[in-house]
Amino acid sequence: MVNISINGKSYPVKFGFASLKKIMGKYNLTRLVEVEALINTIAIDDLPWILNVGVQNGCKITKDEPISLEEIRLAFEEDISLMTKTMEAFSDNLSGNDEKEEPKKKLTHKP
C-alpha cells in the first residue's frame, strides 16, 4: 500500500482484488495481462476515478475516512503531479513494489 497526499492529507492507496475487478469491468477486460497494457493507455480523464478506486480500497483496509471522487477531481486541478503519483501507485501495486520488504535476519554462528 502506498500513501498519496491530497490537499495536505495523506490517503492510503491500494489496488487489490476488488479494485482490480472494478477497473477491469470499466474497461471490459477479462485477463490480468490486459491490465498491464492498460497502464499505457489510460485516458487522462479516468485518472481521478482510478485514484478514487485505490483510495476507497486503501481506506477500507485501514479504516480511514476516504476522500470523495469530486474532491479528488478538484485536487487534480490544483496539483498536476497527482497524475504521475496515480500512475506510479497503480503500477507499483500491480507489480508488488508497494509492499515493504521485511528486513533480512543475519545468520550468526555461535562458537
Helix count from the secondary structure assignment: 5
Main pleated-sheet profile: 2 strands, antiparallel
Give the end-to-end Cα distance, rounded to a whole number of Å.
42 Å
For the CA atoms, what is the radius of gyration?
16 Å
- What best-fitting shape do the alpha-carbon axes yield? globular
Order of helices and strands: EEHHHHH
User: How would you state the average pLDDT, rounded?
Assistant: 85
The overall strand count is 2
The portion of residues assigned to helices is 40-55%
Q: Record the strand order, biggest sheet.
A: 1-2
- Total separate domains: 1
What percent of residues are in strands? 5-15%
Low-pLDDT runs of 5+ residues are 100-107
Structural class: mainly alpha
Description:
The chain is mainly alpha-helical and 111 residues long. The protein has one domain (2-95). Helix content is 52%, strand content 9%. The protein has 5 helices and 2 strands; from the N terminus they run E-E-H-H-H-H-H. The protein has helices at 17-26, 32-38, 47-62, 69-78, 81-95, and strands at residues 2-6, 9-13. Strands 1-2 form a two-stranded antiparallel ribbon. Helix 1 (17-26) runs antiparallel to helix 3. The longest helix has 16 residues, at 47-62. It is globular. The termini are far apart.
Which helices and strands, and how do they pair?
Layout: E1 2-6, E2 9-13, H1 17-26, H2 32-38, H3 47-62, H4 69-78, H5 81-95
Antiparallel strand pairs: 1-2
Helix pairs in contact: 1-3, 3-4, 3-5
Core attributes:
111 residues; mainly alpha; 5 helices
Quick recap:
52% of the residues lie in helices and 9% in strands. It contains 5 helices and 2 strands; from the N terminus they run ββααααα.
